[in-house]
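Per reviewer request, we include the raw input and output of the structure prediction for the construct analysed in the revised manuscript.
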Amino acid sequence: MNILKIKKTNTLKAILFDMVGVLIFKKDGYIPKTVDEFNALKIEKLYNHVDDQKLLKDIKQKLHLSDKKIKKALPFIPAKFEIFPELWTQLPKLKTKYKIAVINNGNAIAKDYWEERFNFDIFDLFINSAIEKIGKPDTAIYLLTCNRLGVNPKECLFMDDSLENIEAAKALEMETIWWNKEEGRESALNKFKKITKII
C-alpha cells in the first residue's frame, strides 16, 4: 500500500525583534538642551557596536571627555527614546505563544540605563552585539540567538528596520518583516499581527 508522505511545515516558535526602529523610537521633536545631552549624542556617533573598550578610548581621544563627563552623559543615550506602545502592549500575549528575543546592534556602555528606562524582563533573551563581539548582519548572531532559544532559524520571525539585516535573516530562511521607514510603523505592525495571529 502506498502511503502519501506529507512534508511537515515549520511552525512559528520564536519572534526576534530589533530594538531601535521596531520596539522603540526616538521621541518626535527631540532636541538636546544640556551639555550632557549633547555629549550623549556625540558618544552615539562613535558607536562601533562590537567593542566597548575601543569606544571608550575613542570617546576620550576624539571628544576629550573625562570619565566623569562620560558617566554623566550615558543616561541620556536611552532617555531620548520611547516605546512603540502599539507593539509593546502585545508582548504579554505573544509571550504565551512564542519565545521572544531582542537582537540589538549597540555598544553596552549604557546598558544599565537602557534596562532602567525600558523593562526588557518579559523577553526570553536579549542579545547585544558588543557583548557577543558580533553584530547584524553577520548571520552568526542570528544563529547564536536561535541556539540559545532552542529553535531552528526556519521557526523564527525576524523584524528590523535595516534591509541589510533583513536580507541576512532571509538567507537563513527566517520569516521577516522589514520595518521600512517610508511605509511607516502601521504597515509593518499590520503584517506582524497577521503572521502572529494576535488580531
